Amino acid sequence: MPPIWRAASTYIVYFVAVGAAFPYLPVHYRALGLDLGTIGLLAALSAATQLVAAPAWGAIADQFGRSRLTLPAAAIVAAAGALALALAREPIAVTAAVVALSVGLAGISPVLDARTIELLGTDRARYGRVRAWGSVSFVVSAAVCGPLIDAGGTGALFLVYVPGLALTAVIALSVPRRATKRHASLRLGTSQLIRQPRMGRFLVGSLMVWAALAAVNGFYSIQVVALGGGASLVGLAWVVGALVEIPIMWTFPRLSARFSAERLLVTGGAIFAARNLLAALAPNGAVLVAIAPLEGAAFGLFFVGGVGFVAARAPAGLAGTAQGIFSATTGLAAILGTGAAGLIASALTIPGMFAVAGLVGVVATIVVADAVRGAGPPAAADPIAVPGAVSAPDPVAFHPRAASPPAPVEEVQTCAIS
After folding, report:
1. pLDDT tens digits, 264-314
2. Position 336 in a domain
3. Quick one: DSSP state of residue 67?
4. What's the pLDDT score for residue 314?
């Protein structure tokens, strides 16, 4: 099997697990008797854990450039945390399980994203096509698990979640490394990335986009139920969103060639804001389902564009660290977004909180637009010397026709999914 298909298979299995849990965990917490404020604090705790753990996992992956074990190790930790959460009933036990689960999850997406981009080489614009297979499996899993939960209760989600994470660890072992020798230390390379003027503004704008999204998504399922929907309708809301996300990711190379990746990023932020504002006006669960495709379209544009924007500006050999930093912005955003959302929802109701998130999204889109305005392929950065390190060529630019990357240490097939 070509290496890029192994990466796609890992996305497929991992997002089967995510589809079983992400839409339904807030409903599970409600079934355990937790109030909205506590649910918001749990989400913030999870985000805080991932904020610290994501860059750490990325740095470990970069430090041990030939090892395949980082990604499976993260999946194993996540599976253990999910099993503990399935058994937890008391708030203290739930909290401990959420922390363990979050530590593991923090190391899956950023490392897998970086590994996939390594395998694609100069064809990195096709990342969206590989990632889209994860969205397909998310759709199937979320659709199947809704009726399963209606029949057996929220605990049924763990029948898919735990085995899915364990199988992710097994399949991830087959994904090869396309090792690149670093010419920057982890500390100085990270500093170099963040100090880029456009990158700093982009990360701030992304933080605001993700914070508004986390606030709404953290309570979307609860609001569907509050407006009279069951678990099946909750699953449908997330399914229809992901269905729109799939073609967006698949056609992203063509869209970015026609409209530019920067414009797509800004469009994604604007659609997020519009969805949040419309959710505030929804009179019933069916309307929340009807506007769910906006979230899918926005996520496909903003996430794929953001991964590419950051990857293009990562110091050579620090792809995992760079994606860990980008992932960490979502962690910090979730701390701010979900933590504030619980308090705002308690004071203004959930629709009122959705409206506030929509206004934050508007401001965030303006910040992102300013950051990426006129941004072309980044200029090559001066290498940062590391004693004993071998100098490597500059990182591959974001432009799809950029020069080829350095030859891999171990020969791997870099064919893209077409």
Report:
1. 888 999 999 999 999 999 888 888 888 888 988 898 888 887 777 776 666
2. yes
3. -
4. 60
- The three-state secondary structure class of 269 is helix
Sequence-distant (≥ 6) Cβ neighbours of residue 221 within 8 angstroms: 23, 24, 26, 27, 234, 237, 238
Answer yes or no: is 395 within a domain: no
Domain containing 73: what range? 3-372
Query: What is the tens place of the pLDDT at every residue in 148-189?
Result: 887 888 888 899 999 999 999 898 888 776 655 544 455 555
Query: Is residue 347 one of the residues assigned to a domain?
Result: yes
Spatial distance between the Cα atoms of 121 and 342, rounded to a whole number of angstroms: 42
Rounded CA-CA distance 138/303 in Å is: 16
Packed helices 197-226 and 292-311: angle between N→C axes, nearest 10 degrees: 160
**379 in a domain, yes or no?**
no
Q: Which domain CATH number covers 75?
A: 1.20.1250.20
Cβ(40)–Cβ(47) under 8 Å? no
Q: How many CA atoms lie within 13 A of 261 on its CB side?
A: 26
What is the total count of domains within the chain? 1
> Alpha-carbon distance 386 to 186, whole Å?
10
Instruction: State pTM to two decimals.
Output: 0.63
CA–CA distance, 279 with 326 (Å, rounded to integer): 27
* Collapsed DSSP state (helix, strand, coil) of residue 69: coil
Tokens found for residue 49: 């854990």
